[in-house]
C-alpha cells in the first residue's frame, strides 16, 4: 500500500436512514447502540498501492543503449523519468500489461531488476527555557515537567531532555532534509530556515497544501527563542525542503528515491522521512544506500499499524526506524514495533507548526497538535543533527551509534524497539 500519514481515524454514526423491513430495523437498532465506530487505517477506502502504468527498471551497466531502446520498445515502454544517481529508469507501460512486463524484464539477463512504482503516504494522525509562547505549556516531548496533555498528567522523564542538549549545542547550521509534502513558504517559524527546495511531485509548487510537511519541519527546526510559536528540536539547524508527497499526502517511490539522492547531493547530514509504505522496493533501498554511502544519516517512521508489520524505507538496514511514545513514556497504541525498529521518540499530541494558509488536513492555521510516528521521527532527526554538531559527529556510523547507545532503556526496550527512547541531553553530553 502507499505511504501513510500516521493518525487516528474515527467515523461517527449520527443517524441511520429509515428502514422499513423488520430485519434491517433490528440491524439498525444494533448499530445505534454503538457510541462510535473506530476504523483502523487498513479499513479506510484503499488507495492504489502503485502508480498505474509505471515501472522502475535498472538495466545492467554493460547493456548497450541500443539494446535498452529496443527492449523498451518491445514492451511498449516509454521512459518518463530517471533516478540518475542510481541508474534507474521510470518507464510508462500499458497498465493492463504491467505485471507481465515486470516479469519479462526480470527474466532478461541484461536487467538488474524491474518492479512496480509503489505509492507512499505520510504517517501521522492529524491529531532557561526558550521564550516561544507554546514551549513550556505544550511541547512536552522536548521538556516535560508533568504537563496535562489530553486530560492526563504526563511523566516528567518522558521527554528527550532537549534543554540539557541545548546547553551543549543548538545545531551549528547542520542541514536536515525534510522529504514530505512541502513546507509553508510564509510561516514565521519556518520560512527563514529553508536553504534549498525542490518539487518532485509535478504539483508545480514546493509549498505545503496538505499540512504534514510543515508540521514535521517545525518539530525539526522551528525558529527558536523568537517569542512566538514553538521551539525546534535542533534550533540552529537548516532545512532542505524536498516535496516528495503530493497535495493529497501520497507519493510515488520514484519521487522519494529522487528526493533522497537530491538531498544527499545537496549536503544534507540528515534525511527525515515521516512516511512509509508496506511494499519493499529495490529502488528505494538503493537510494537510501546512496545517501548512506555519502555519509548521510537517514531517519524514517516505523509506521502506525500498531503491529509488527514492516514499513519502508524505515525497515532498511541503513535507516534509523523510529517508533512513537506517549507522555507516560509508553509505546503509543498506534505505533508499529518489532526488532526491526531502532529507537522510540515522543509522538503523541506533539504541538508544532501547520500552514498559515488553507490546507487539506485542516487543523488550526499556524500551530496545532499532531500524533504519529511521523511526529516522533523529526524529533529523532533533530537529535541526530545535534550530535553531528558535536565532537561525536565524525561519521554517519558514529552519529547513529551515539543516538542509539545513549537512548533511555524505558519499558518496552528490547520488545518494541532495540535501543530505547532517545535522550538528546545524553546524546550530546561531553
From TrEMBL:
Fervidolysin-like N-terminal prodomain domain location: 43-117
Query: What family classification does the UniProt entry report for this protein?
Result: Belongs to the peptidase S8 family.
| SUPFAM superfamilies in the record | Subtilisin-like (SSF52743)
Mind telling me which PROSITE patterns this protein's record contains?
SUBTILASE (PS51892), SUBTILASE_ASP (PS00136), SUBTILASE_HIS (PS00137), SUBTILASE_SER (PS00138)
Protein's recorded name: Uncharacterized protein
Which cell locations does it reside in?
A: Secreted
What GO biological process terms does the UniProt entry carry, in alphabetical order? Answer: proteolysis
Q: Which residues form the active site?
A: 180, 212, 374
Amino acid at each position: 500500500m502507499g505511504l501513510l500519514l500516521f493518525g487516528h481515524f474515527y467515523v461517527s454514526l449520527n443517524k441511520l436512514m429509515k428502514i422499513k423491513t423488520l430485519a434491517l430495523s433490528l440491524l439498525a437498532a444494533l448499530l445505534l447502540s454503538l457510541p462510535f465506530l473506530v476504523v483502523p487505517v487498513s479499513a479506510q477506502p484503499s488507495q492504489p498501492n502503485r502508480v498505474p502504468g509505471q515501472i522502475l527498471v535498472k538495466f545492467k551497466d554493460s547493456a548497450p543503449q541500443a539494446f535498452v531502446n529496443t527492449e523498451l520498445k518491445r514492451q511498449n515502454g516509454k521512459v518518463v523519468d530517471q533516478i540518475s544517481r542510481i541508474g534507474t529508469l521510470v518507464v510508462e507501460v500499458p497498465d493492463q500489461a504491467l505485471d507481465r512486463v515486470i516479469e519479462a524484464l526480470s527474466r532478461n539477463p541484461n536487467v538488474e531488476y524491474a518492479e512496480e512504482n509503489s505509492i507512499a503516504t505520510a504517517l501521522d494522525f492529524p491529531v532557561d527555557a526558550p521564550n516561544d509562547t507554546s514551549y513550556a505549556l505544550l511541547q512536552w516531548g522536548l521538556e516535560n515537567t508533568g504537563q496535562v496533555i489530553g486530560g492526563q498528567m504526563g511523566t516528567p522523564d518522558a521527554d528527550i531532555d532537549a534543554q540539557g542538549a541545548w546547553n551543549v549545542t543548538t545545531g551549528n547550521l547542520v542541514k536536515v532534509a525534510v522529504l514530505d509534502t512541502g513546507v509553508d513558504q510564509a510561516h514565521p517559524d519556518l520560512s527563514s530556515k529553508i536553504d534549498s527546495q525542490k518539487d518532485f511531485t509535478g504539483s508545480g509548487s514546493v509549498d505545503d497544501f496538505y499540512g504534514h510537511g510543515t508540521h514535521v519541519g517545525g518539530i525539526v527546526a522551528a525558529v527558536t527563542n523568537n517569542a512566538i510559536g514553538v521551539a525546534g528540536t535542533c534550533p540552529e539547524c537548516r532545512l532542505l525542503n524536498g516535496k516528495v508527497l503530493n497535495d493529497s499526502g501520497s507519493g510515488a517511490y520514484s519521487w522519494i528515491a529522487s528526493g533522497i539522492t537530491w538531498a544527499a547531493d545537496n549536503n544534507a547530514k540528515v534525511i527525515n522521512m515521516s512516511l512509509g509504505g508496506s511494499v519493499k522496493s529495490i529502488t528505494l533501498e538503493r537510494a537510501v544506500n546512496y545517501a548512506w554511502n555519502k555519509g548521510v544519516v537517514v531517519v524514517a517512521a516505523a509506521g502506525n499499524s500498531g503491529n509488527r508489520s514492516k514499513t519502508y524505507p524505515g525497515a532498511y538496514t541503513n535507516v534509523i526506524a523510529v517508533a512513537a511514545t506517549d507522555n507516560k513514556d509508553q509505546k503509543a497504541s498506534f505505533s508499529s514495533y518489532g526488532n526491526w525498529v531502532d529507537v522510540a521518540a515522543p509522538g503523541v499530541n506533539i504541538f508544532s507548526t501547520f500552514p498559515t494558509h488553507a490546507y487539506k488536513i485542516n487543523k488550526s492555521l499556524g500551530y496545532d497538535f499532531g500524533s504519529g510516528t511521523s511526529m516522533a521521527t523529526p524529533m529523532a532527526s533533530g537529535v541526530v543533527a545535534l550530535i553531528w554538531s558535536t565532537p561525536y559527529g565524525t561519521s554517519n556510523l558514529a552519529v547513529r551509534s551515539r543516538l542509539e547507545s545513549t537512548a533511555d532503556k524505558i519499558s518496552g526496550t528490547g520488545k518494541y524497539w532495540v535501543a530505547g527512547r532517545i535522550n538528546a541531553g545524553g546524546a550530546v553530553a561531553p
